[in-house]
UniProtKB/TrEMBL annotation:
<dbReference type="InterPro" id="IPR035965">
    <property type="entry name" value="PAS-like_dom_sf"/>
</dbReference>
<dbReference type="Pfam" id="PF00072">
    <property type="entry name" value="Response_reg"/>
</dbReference>
<keyword id="KW-0175">Coiled coil</keyword>
<dbReference type="InterPro" id="IPR036890">
    <property type="entry name" value="HATPase_C_sf"/>
</dbReference>
<dbReference type="InterPro" id="IPR001789">
    <property type="entry name" value="Sig_transdc_resp-reg_receiver"/>
</dbReference>
<keyword id="KW-0418">Kinase</keyword>
<dbReference type="InterPro" id="IPR003594">
    <property type="entry name" value="HATPase_dom"/>
</dbReference>
<feature type="domain" description="Histidine kinase">
    <location>
        <begin position="329"/>
        <end position="553"/>
    </location>
</feature>
<dbReference type="Pfam" id="PF08447">
    <property type="entry name" value="PAS_3"/>
</dbReference>
<keyword id="KW-0597">Phosphoprotein</keyword>
<keyword id="KW-0067">ATP-binding</keyword>
<dbReference type="InterPro" id="IPR003661">
    <property type="entry name" value="HisK_dim/P_dom"/>
</dbReference>
<feature type="domain" description="Response regulatory">
    <location>
        <begin position="572"/>
        <end position="688"/>
    </location>
</feature>
<feature type="coiled-coil region">
    <location>
        <begin position="119"/>
        <end position="146"/>
    </location>
</feature>
<keyword id="KW-0902">Two-component regulatory system</keyword>
<dbReference type="Pfam" id="PF02518">
    <property type="entry name" value="HATPase_c"/>
</dbReference>
<dbReference type="InterPro" id="IPR013655">
    <property type="entry name" value="PAS_fold_3"/>
</dbReference>
Amino acid sequence: MNILLVEDNLAEARLLKEVLKGAILSRFNLAHVKRLGEAIASLETESFDVVLLDLTLPDSEGLASLDSLIQHAPSLPIVVLTNTNDDELAIESVRHGAQDYLMKRQINQEILVRSLRYAIERKQAAEALREANEILEKRVQERTAALEMANELLRQEIEWRQRIQSRLELAQQAGKIASFEWLIPTNDIVWTAELEALYGLAPGSFDGQYEGWMQSIHPDDRPKVEQELWQAVKNGQGLDTEFRIVCPSDTRREEEYYLLDEASCPLTSSCCVPGEIRWIAVKSSLFCDQIGKPVRMIGIHMDITEKKQLEAQFLRAQRLESLGTLASGIAHDLNNILTPILAVVQLLPLKLPNLNNNTQQLLKTLESSAQRGADLIKQILSFARGVEGKRVNLQIHHLLFEIEQIIHQTLPKSIDIHSNIPANLWTISGDTTQLHQVFMNLCVNARDAMPEGGNLQIIAQNFMVDEQYARMHIDAKVGAYVVVTVADTGMGIPPEIIHRVFDPFFTTKEVGKGTGLGLSAVLGIVKSHGGFIDVQSEVNKGSVFKVFLPAIESPTQETDDDLELLTGEQELILVVDDEAAITEITKTTLETYNYRVLTASDGIEAIALYAEYKDEIAGVLMDIMMPTMDGTTIIPLLRRLNPNVYVLAMSGLNSTEVVSQVQKLGFQGFLSKPFTTKELLWALYKGLGTAV
């Protein structure tokens, strides 16, 4: 320890040297100067760990000496020395920046050594906090600037979309605009041939009567249109409204309608299809005679059906985006709740080894339920935000056997379930949760197709796809597959819509009984696994869905349930999380498996602990979403203290975006909440084995 003593009294300086000689510090260097100017000159040429400063000097006196020294060396800890027993002076010294205040007459070896050590530690902690605040402020400024830039880009995008939308509307109107004139005194209406085509009528077939026009409007919209029309006449204004029409049904003579081709339709786009519901917008102006009496209304009709459809899709996309945001927030909180539950239920058998069989079964039920809750959250996020799947080598017959058990318990008794799932199926590489979702969706769809009961078959087999078979299926490749067939004897799928069953939002179910996302999610998951789906169906005879999953040559890696292989060797782990339940149960779990643990509830406490124990801490387990200072802010500070620190991120959000973010920031691993004891131990085992 290099100490700079600023003391003009030689006797007191010698006394301090003698006190330090017998101290527990085995190595120190004490440099002595008599004046403040000499001290400042020494600081410019030499490096010191701490300063002992007498407040009464020949060239400076009182707190001015302290202020001048801090100005020249702001990061150097200072202990003030004085012969005055003045509490107010002590307080003012600390306020001005001193780390401690000592009475010369009361100094002994223990007091002096402790004061020097604490002064250095306090200054280091203050500097770390100051750097943390600077980094945090800089991060806030950067995020504010990024937000402003994003807002500007959003504004430009909105303007661009508005311009595109205006041009799109002009293009639509150019092909779907027709004029009309209403003679108010006689109630006669003059329509052009384009307007008749817009309403699905043959040229000249409109009778020119007000009632004829009203009858063509959708019954639900007719009262509103009539009210708006006569209110506009009463107020001396034109009509500006939107409504639906029902194109004339094909019970009338077929020759009264236009064929859907450019030669026969006076509009540049398709005319009204019999029985179709379309949206019409009317914009018009009202003309009055010399005494102000309304005499006629002239305007245009526009087909805005496509605009309404685009609006509906846009609103649906907004709802899905909101659902994704909501699901992410809820998933984070629920995963924080499930994490200690899973950890506790796995620790109890170790802490209480003499539990009876009934209690052990209850614990297994609790663990299974908590794990299924975590899996359910992952299934929600797989659509809402895109969950990073965990691919493992697996024998699919285990998964199919579990699904068979579930559907036996949940499907109506009117449905007979038959299965043929051999044990010698080839190995595949897949995400168990996602594949569970695929086959459960297919079984639920089969149930819905058999409301009166029927037969459901689940068949699995090994299958070799040759070149001829691959040519018949665009997504197939030559090679080995495991084929899982889900067949029902339900109502079947009409041939005209069978090609649409995998389209997002397409469903034949009643409103409220299906979103049209189930099969689209099934197809997405199967394709992400390198497989494909074949569908065959016949109305009133049932449907057959065949899921082809590519087989792999490597054998299944059976999981080793012996956690003793992952036991620690008394490594010290720092656990950082703002959820007290998570830090406590994680601490208990790690200590049970021979780790030592420090816990911190926020970033500032984590930095202080790491600065104190950095030579002992082997790894840091840190939540990336915390108030005040989150994990993304803390890791640069930890890297400054130790560039080789092993940091494992954990979060209740397991999205592709989050995993990518933590990798870019320098985290060596990622642990998704809720995690099992084995996942926690395995992550530390892998990380500490490769950490420097």
